[in-house]
């Protein structure tokens, strides 16, 4: 046992020393690819909508519709909201615990709308970095269109889905 450990240590040392040295010992196997490294989503997609997406989209809309110029704090808030949406777009491509989640995420149209949401949210983040109000408004409008397109295809067709916020239940 101790011998095996010593032998392994020697192989590692030689392999690390140089490529030339590595040729003289048994090749070290390539690192095992990481599989199954995505954590399960232990809530329904609906909860991601209510808990992250709606909240963050509200932050983007609020900034886009503000009549006053945005101050540094406003830009920071809308930037953080955009980042939440970029991440949440990936989250909703994972099936959670909702009854329709697995069917939804397997549909290419679902992925398309999630990708549209992610692109729009990324464009919001870019507009924020440039503090470009016109670009912010355009990206926010695209974002709203992505929400609505997906809702009209999937949400409205789903019996039992309504406006009631999970957070309020
Ligand atoms: C890829 C499709 C898709 C996209 C994109 C999407 N939604 Fe949804 N959303 C759904 C579906 C489907 C439901 C219904 C879920 C259910 O009832 O199980 C839903 C539900 C909701 C709900 C209701 C949550 C509740 O408590 O019942 C809100 C609010 C919401 N979405 C907001 C948004 C906003 C805001 C955006 C855009 C920033 C957005 N969604 C983008 C598919 C989408």
Could you explain the architecture of this structure?
By secondary structure, the protein is an all-alpha fold. It folds into 2 domains: 1-36; 45-168, Cytochrome c/b562 (Four Helix Bundle (Hemerythrin (Met), subunit A)). Helix content is 66%, strand content 0%. The chain contains 7 helices and no strands. The chain has helices at residues 2-17, 19-22, 45-65, 72-91, 101-105, 108-130, 133-155. Helix 4 (72-91) packs antiparallel against helix 6. Residues 1-23 and 163-169 have low confidence and may be disordered. The structure holds heme C. Residues 44, 46, 49-50, 53-54, 57, 85, 92, 98, 100, 110, 113-114, 117, 143, 146-147, 150-151, 154-155, 158, 161-162, 164-166 line the site of heme C.
**Span between N and C termini?**
58 Å
- Quickly give the CATH architecture of the largest domain: Up-down Bundle
Number of helical segments?
A: 7
Structural class: mainly alpha
The fraction of residues assigned to DSSP E strands is: under 5%
Number of domains: 2
Q: Please identify the oligomeric state.
A: single chain
Question: Percent range for helical residues?
Answer: 55-70%
Helix and strand sequence: HHHHHHH
Q: State the low-pLDDT regions, or none.
A: 1-23, 163-169
**Average pLDDT figure:** 82
In CATH, the topology of the largest domain is named Four Helix Bundle (Hemerythrin (Met), subunit A)
The CATH superfamily name of the largest domain is Cytochrome c/b562
CATH class (first level) name of the largest domain: Mainly Alpha
Which molecules are bound in this entry?
Answer: heme C
Radius of gyration, whole Å:
24 Å
Count of individual beta strands: 0
